[in-house]
């Protein structure tokens, strides 16, 4: 096991969907449970799941899967707060790998490619380069933990990469960019691509 912890960001409020997307059905589980179970299969030190008010009810079920659920402070909204909360729970790792809690079809090969040789790449920020551009997972080495915790806003990882390209190593992967669940159209499209029935039942 390498000394990299996974952090799944799942504290979003699902404003565009109008319903907590992390709790949507997915093959007999919720979307978030499905994502956590898949990531738990990677050679990670631990898997931390950052929860918000809508996803917090899943905490006991995520613990049963072996993950470590943590909750953002009351009233927190910015993505930076989720990142800070996750880092506080993973401070002993040499690096953390950030995942999104609304990408149920993320290819695990992306995370494995990232893990393979991450030390040899020698950069504190590492990101997958898909066919259409950069996407998660994003790896951050311990040297940048404090820098990242000091940031505020919604796109802190991407802003940091833009401001310090010399810190960034891209990991190429010949696969399409994974999709998030932001709308109902996204949800049904991803279900279809995953071969799941087009009914709201699992």
Describe the structure in your own words.
Strand 7 and strand 8 form a beta hairpin. The chain is α/β, with parallel strands linked by helices and 202 residues long. The strands form two sheets. It has a seven-stranded mixed beta sheet with strand order 5-4-1-6-8-7-9, sandwiched between helices. A two-stranded antiparallel sheet has the order 2-3. The chain has helices at 31-40, 59-64, 79-88, 108-115, 118-121, 145-149, 156-163, 184-193; strands at residues 4-10, 25-26, 29-30, 47-51, 68-71, 95-100, 125-130, 133-141, 168-172. It has eight helices and nine strands. The longest helix is centred in the N-terminal third of the chain and has 10 residues, at 31-40. The mean pLDDT is 91.
The helix fraction, in percent, is 25-40%
Q: Find the count of extended strands (DSSP E, 2+ residues).
A: 9
Structural class: alpha/beta
Task: Outline the low-pLDDT stretches.
Answer: none
Query: What's the alpha carbon Rg, rounded to whole Å?
Result: 16 Å
Q: N-to-C terminal Cα separation, in Å? A: 33 Å
Strand order of the largest sheet: 5-4-1-6-8-7-9
CA-based shape: globular
- Taken as a percent bin, the fraction of beta residues is 15-25%
Major sheet characteristics: 7 strands, mixed
Number of helix segments?
A: 8
């Amino acid at each position: 096991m390498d000394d990299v912890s996974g952090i799944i960001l799942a504290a979003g409020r699902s404003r565009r969907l109008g319903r907590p997307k992390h709790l949507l059905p997915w093959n007999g589980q919720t979307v978030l449970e499905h994502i956590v179970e898949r990531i738990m299969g990677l050679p990670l030190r631990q898997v931390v799941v950052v929860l918000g008010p809508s996803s917090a009810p899943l905490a006991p079920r995520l613990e049963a899967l072996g993950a470590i659920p943590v909750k953002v402070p009351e009233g927190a909204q910015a993505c930076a707060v989720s990142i800070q909360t996750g880092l506080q729970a993973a401070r002993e790792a040499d690096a953390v790998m950030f995942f999104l809690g609304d990408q149920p079809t993320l290819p695990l090969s992306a995370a494995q490619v990232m893990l393979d040789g991450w030390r040899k790449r020698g950069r504190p920020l590492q990101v997958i380069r898909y066919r259409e551009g950069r996407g998660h997972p994003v790896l951050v080495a311990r040297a940048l933990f404090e820098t990242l915790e000091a940031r505020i806003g919604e796109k802190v990882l991407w802003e940091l990469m833009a401001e310090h390209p010399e810190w960034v190593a891209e990991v190429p992967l010949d696969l399409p960019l994974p999709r998030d669940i932001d709308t109902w159209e996204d949800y049904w499209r991803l279900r279809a691509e995953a071969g799941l029935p087009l009914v709201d039942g699992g």
